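Handover notes (outgoing to incoming on-call)

Open items:
1. Methyltransferase-like protein 5: sequence verified, structure written out, both below. Nothing else pending on this one.
2. Nothing else urgent.
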Amino acid sequence: MKLRQLEMLLQRVSGFDNPSAEREQYQTPAPLAARLIHMAMLAGDITDRTVLDLGCGTGILAIGAALLGAEVVAVEDDVEAIRIAEANARDLGCSIRFIKTDVAGEEALALIPDCDTVIMNPPFGAQTEHADRPFLDMALLKAHVIYGIFNAGSGPFITEYIRGRGEITTSVLAGLTIPRTFWFHTRDRYEIPVEIHVIRRN
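Methyltransferase-like protein 5 structure tokens:
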């Protein structure tokens, strides 16, 4: 599937009905989601692979991977988000296994299976400092390769945090467009520079 075709399909994915600012529940834009998934596919990390989406939200990354032939498990601890993600998956004809658990919780390690590839758009830590760390920790335990969306300029911090466990092998600059969502937003649209980091476990 070509990148543009994937992007057009992902435009059909519904976002959050009642997003939480504290949990940084912003919908991943279809162009950004498609770019990450297509990039991973070209590297041989999606099609015919087991793929784990950590913090799947309403399912856009998980659905993208399923559309490109992955066997997908999606993890999310928000019941309402899972409900929307399941509906999105049905709408696009995708079979995805959803697991309700907190990535940082005690039971998560046992509930979340090992896989070939992790995909994720974790919280950036704007509301809760270091909110991305449990996602990095779990990803490094569960897969040999990780594709994640992070704040632009986060590379040195991630490199130091995962030192001895993994390393960033590729970084691609991208943009994340956020529409006015919460009461503290003063503009109709925000353009946030982000990076897609590819991390390989040692």
